[in-house]
Design goal:
two-stranded antiparallel sheet; 2% strand; 187 residues; flat; 2 strands
Length: 187
């Protein structure tokens, strides 16, 4: 592909990304207008902008990783999982309402993912372990919530555990044919 054609393709991709961000910003506003009695304050709109822009930025970063589609997809999915979890938790709360202090346990999941990624130096094999640890931490929140009598959070737990596990699998694939648990080549 010629350099000019590649530049046009990248420019169209960015325009599409910005259009997608705008569409994602409009959907909740339109839906929430249909719900009587629910009003967004400016802080909600700013947070949504940060969330959607963060997802767009993650996708842009993922797209720039040459020959590492699995790594980019894993990174994008991990960021999406973290931002979505924060947004859902702040918007309505996963357990009870958004003001319920028990929801702070979900910050542990995000902390595990971020700390694990930092410790791994963002290398594929370490990222796979970090996302697996985040999935385990996510499952532990279900056990804590259920054991403490805060209700059944099974479906949303399954959703987020799945995102973390898929991300871990993508990072494992990006690491190549290695035994992630032992950090050595497989035979």
């Amino acid at each position: 592909m010629a350099a000019g054609a590649m530049d046009r393709t990248k420019a169209l991709g960015r325009v599409g990304l910005l259009g997608g961000i705008a569409a994602l910003m409009i959907v909740p506003v339109v839906v929430l207008r249909a719900i009587h009695g629910y009003e967004w304050d400016p802080g909600d709109a700013v947070f949504l902008l940060i969330l959607v822009s963060g997802i767009g930025l993650a996708l842009e970063v993922a797209a720039r990783v040459p020959d590492r589609i699995a790594y980019g997809a894993g990174l994008g999915l991990a960021i999406l999982a973290g931002l979505l979890q924060i947004w859902v938790n702040l918007a309505v709360g996963i357990i009870g309402s958004e003001d319920d202090p028990i929801n702070l346990i979900y910050a542990v999941v995000i902390a595990v993912a971020v700390a694990g990624a930092a410790i791994a130096g963002f290398r594929s094999a370490g990222m796979a372990k970090a996302m697996l640890a985040a999935a385990i931490a996510q499952a532990a929140t279900f056990v804590v919530a259920l054991g403490a009598g805060f209700g059944f959070t099974g479906p949303i737990t399954i959703f987020f555990v799945s995102l973390w596990l898929i991300s871990a699998g993508l990072f494992r694939r990006a690491a190549g044919d290695r035994d992630i648990a032992l950090d050595r080549p497989t035979t």
